Amino acid sequence: MTNTQQAINDQIIEDYSNPKLDVVQIDGLVVLKIIKNCKEYLPELVPGQLLGLDIGTSLEVSNCFPFPPRDQEDENTESSAEYQLEMMRYLREVNIDSNTVGWYTPTYLNSFFNESVIETQYNYQATINQKCVVIVYDPIKTSQGTLALKCYRLTQPFMELFKDQPFSRERLDQANLNFNDIFEQIPIKIHNSQLINALLYEFESSDSLTTQFDRLGISNNIYLEKVMEGMNECLESLNNDLNKLYQYQRAYQTQKNNYIQQKTLEGKKVDEEELAQMIKPLNTHQPSKLNSLLLTNQVNNYCDQIHSFCGNSLTKLSLLRELQK
Amino acid sequence: MQRETSIFLPTQVNVKVHPVVIFNILDHYIRRNVGQDRVIGTLLGYYNDGVIEIRNCFPVVHSEGEQVAVEMEFQRKMLDLHLKSSPKEPIVGWYATGNDINENSVIINNFYREEMNGQTPIHLTLDTGLTNDTMGIHAYHAHNLSLNHESSLGSYFTPLSLEILTFEAENAGLDSIAQTKYDQQSTSLLSELESLQNSLSKLDQMLESITEYISAVEKGEIQGDPKIGRFLARTIQSIPKANSQVMDKVINNSVKDLLMIVYLSSLTRSQLAVAEKVRQSLV
Asked: pLDDT digit string (tens) for A254-265?
């Protein structure tokens, strides 16, 4: 092996073990494919695989394909994995990157901070490559005229925390993890080859494709209503969660007190070990903190959405008011 | 689909292509093997009342030397996989890059005719060499020239009318992708406000050009086109005539609603922040 080859190999290994990720570079083709696949399956939300390469601290996504939609019975996890492998094998034959770099999923109103998404993403990051990302696409927002594409990755501290269940309050406190620290958003860049740029110039000259006035619509109250509804639901379940925690705490305390009372009545000294033994089974029933953490994150996300949407609407409205005069 | 027997059969087929297909073909061309002149692949989509919508495509391995070899096994496997994820998109034809149709095209076309159980495949060509400075996207139907059913004298390809079709989400996608035109390197996504600004300046431009046109017609510099005039009149008519006071009220109400919502969400956010602070101070 020559020196340069050695150096390249070292570089690859170093890149692989380096968890830093600054930017995700997406090919225009991938953007269009995600939009198309998503549109096809609506109202069902069908995720898919992203293919590409990771170079240094950036990740290039150069192709993607959708997973086959799930059948009625959920027996096809095996066949789905087979489908992926086969697809990648064939894509490799036509010189397409056959390297998994993550997955994409369509979502309504960014309501994707749930446990199943986190689990899938955790598996990607833990088993394939720590640079794997999830690209989230919002078809509703996009049909209003702005491409809503976001790229996320689980943070390193959260990965550590998620590795070992249960997700108790003590461990969360130890990690000192904020609700903002679950996902990190990674900036997206769009990349096109020169040939595709040439095509885009051609599209521009033919007028039919340059209608970009969808986003000038004023009355998007339905969207706002939906976001508020989602937020309401979230807050409600957060409340439920808190109640559960409260009940648990009360039961815990009562049991402890009962025990101490009994011992004092019997005139014996309180045995710390026995107490711990008594309380132990309760500990396993401790509600998972993960849920409330996720809900908080979701609420925060809704707030962000509302802010950006309202900011836009206000701009449009003030414009309209000036026009009226 | 009609089965043609004579060359006089009119083909009234419209072909509509989604941009994603063309992107895919170009990507395939960029990733071609060393020494390969052109690439081919299968087009997927559906027939609908004389309109053929091409919605997807995938590359196929082939080689053109002294003999033409298309990996039909590969083609079938790929088709199977695509049908599994989108069963409503059967095979409708094939694509090739380059701006000419040669004798090899005829052979490949026959391959595809067999794959499609005798239906006539659409042939889409894309000129990646950019001769005449255009991409030259064309669609063809091949017809057999024959005197009787057994023998074939040759084939000829008739061009079909072709248009690029998008839906609104695709428009938005294309719009953001198109930003790379101005910047050779990769660009980041536009924020909502920026894209709003773009739209408005575009609208402004359009209004300006139409005012210019109107004033030119008024001065008698150019002959007014009645079609444009009628179109303008219709546009102006479509603007709802509203009492300015009523309109003011509507706008004010919306603004108030929005401000209220912003206030509430800010409140929620600060609640979250407070909760977080309390938790941290307890540790």
From this structure: 888 888 888 788
Q: Judge if B156 and B44 occupy the same domain.
A: yes
SS3 (DSSP) at B55: strand
Q: What pLDDT, on the 0 to 100 scale, is given for residue A186?
A: 86
Residues of B within 8 A of A224 (CB-CB) are 261
Chain A residue with the nearest C-alpha to that of B41? A94
Which residues, 6 or more positions from A34, have their beta carbon under 8 angstroms from its beta carbon?
A: A48, A64, A104, A106, A135, A137, A149
Question: What confidence tens digit (pLDDT) does each residue in B236-254 have?
Answer: 887 777 677 887 888 888 8
**Given an 8 Å threshold on Cβ–Cβ distance, is A307 in contact with B262?**
yes
What is the interface pTM, i.e. ipTM, of the complex? 0.77
User: Are B130 and B80 contained in the same domain?
Assistant: yes
pLDDT at residue B184 tops 60: no
Are residues B233 and B248 located together in one domain of the fold? no
| Contacts across the A-B interface (CB distance below 8 Å) | 239
Residues of B in contact with A68 (CB under 8 A): 84-85
Sorted by sequence, the CB contacts under 8 Å of residue B30 that are 6+ apart come out as A193, A195
Give the residue ranges of chain A where pLDDT is below 70: 1-2, 15-16, 70-78, 165-175, 205-220, 270-271, 278-287, 325
A3-154+186-212 CATH pick, 3.40.140.10, 3.40.50.2300, 3.40.50.300, 3.30.1540.10: 3.40.140.10
CB B1 within 8 A of CB B120: yes
Structure tokens at B253: 């109400």
d(Cα A255, Cα B249) in Å, to the nearest integer?
A: 61
Residue B35: DSSP 8-state = T
Distance, CA of B71 to CA of A62 (rounded, Å) = 24
Q: Spell out which residues of chain A touch residue B275, defining contact as CB-CB under 8 Å.
A: 296
What is the rounded distance in angstroms from the CA atom of residue A22 to the CA atom of residue A15? 13
CB contact under 8 A, B85 and A307: no
